[in-house]
Design brief:
The protein is about 55% helix and about 15% strand. The protein is built from 12 helices and 8 strands. The strands form 3 sheets. A 4-stranded mixed β-sheet has the order 1-2-3-4.
């Protein structure tokens, strides 16, 4: 069962809601309806409280969405493709294929979300002075939501906007990778402080701290990985001696090949044409007398030899696969695996420590 649900599409971007946010919205509706509220909901009749509570929960959803849309709009201005927006219990994230590498562009994209939230908060605060009590309470809460959302995202730690703003400033004065490492260290330090504070005052802060700590570490890992593998081409890493299978190969033969060569996946070709790939996972539970054609995966994900090794890593991570056939002019010229990439990464990092530099 999927943990997120696609609800609609706006400005050409899919919007998905994670189940954790839906749970939070239901809890908010319950809290504002049943328990005393600092925004005056308890002063209204029960039915009106339910309506106000539901509207407030939807307002929280809208606040997060508008925040992430602001990031997305500015990112697309710099040519960044936004794949989707995911809304979850800690806020939201605009999932982009990449981030602008120019510090000023990254700063603009990062600050766009908090700026939009602060703008909405200011407008809502002005509207809270309307004479109608219920509307006044609603706009007061809406202003509060957006102000807290902006403040939370300005924490200088990945994956918060503040962490990206901090990196944009640091990247003006040092390399992108070094700026990322320093910003990630600041984020982890803040997360540890927040977790300790949460132990004594609010356990909820421990969850937020864990989210920030993991996010900072993951951001650092990806950027440093790109720094190592971004200058390496797929053709420099791939295995060229590819063992091909044909559609009529028996599953029993594949089992023998797995034991003999220890490779976990093999391209399937019909003549010169790539028609599929078969892996250990595909043959588990299959009849040994069956043919590869009936168990292979025909949904092919390939890469060209001139692409960067980091691009191969991103594709494997996004698709949840361990290897990619390398195709040039319609023919398979090699295969690259996640283990190939990790070995190259370890070697390059060790050589760099020794003072070796790749020639351009």
């Amino acid at each position: 069962m999927r943990a997120s649900l696609r609800i609609f599409r706006v400005l050409g971007i899919d919007v998905e809601v994670h189940i954790s946010l839906l749970i939070l919205l239901l809890l908010l509706i319950y809290a504002f309806t049943v328990t005393p509220s600092p925004f005056g909901f308890a002063n209204f009749p029960f039915l009106e409280r339910i309506i106000l509570s539901a509207a407030s929960a939807i307002a929280l959803f809208a606040s997060i969405l508008l925040h992430e849309l602001s990031h997305s709009i500015f990112a697309r201005r710099y040519g960044v493709k936004v794949k989707k927006i995911m809304l979850f219990i800690f806020g939201g994230v605009a999932m982009m294929e990449s981030l602008p590498r120019k510090p000023k562009e990254e700063f603009t994209v990062a600050i766009a979300g908090p700026a939009a939230s602060i703008g909405i908060a200011a407008l809502s605060f002005l509207l809270s002075f309307v004479p109608h009590g219920a509307l006044s309470a609603f706009f007061t809460l809406f202003a509060y939501f957006n102000f807290i959302l902006a403040l939370f995202n300005l924490i200088p730690a990945f994956p918060m906007d503040g962490g990206r703003i901090l990196r944009s400033f640091l990247a003006e004065r040092m390399g992108y990778a070094k700026a990322t490492r320093l910003a990630a260290e600041v984020g982890r330090g803040l997360a540890i402080f927040m977790a300790i504070f949460g132990i004594f005052y609010n356990p909820w802060l421990i969850l937020i701290a864990l989210f920030i700590y993991i996010g900072a570490s993951e951001e650092e890992r990806l950027v440093l990985l790109e720094n190592v593998l971004g200058g390496v081409k797929v053709e420099d890493v791939m295995s060229r001696d590819v063992l091909f299978l044909t559609p009529d190969t028996k599953v029993s033969e594949v089992m023998e090949l797995l034991l003999k060569y220890k490779h976990l996946g093999y391209p399937v070709v019909d003549g010169d044409r790539l028609v599929g790939i078969v892996t250990l996972k595909d043959i588990i539970g299959a009849n040994p007398d069956d043919t590869v054609e009936n168990v292979m995966s025909a949904e092919l994900v390939t890469i060209e030899p001139q692409k960067s090794a980091f691009e191969a890593f991103k594709i494997m991570s996004e698709k949840g696969i361990g290897r990619l056939p390398v195709v040039e002019n319609g023919k398979v010229v090699g295969i690259i695996s996640r283990s190939d990439l990790m070995r190259v990464k370890e070697i390059l990092e060790a050589l760099e420590v020794m003072g070796w530099r790749r020639s351009s």
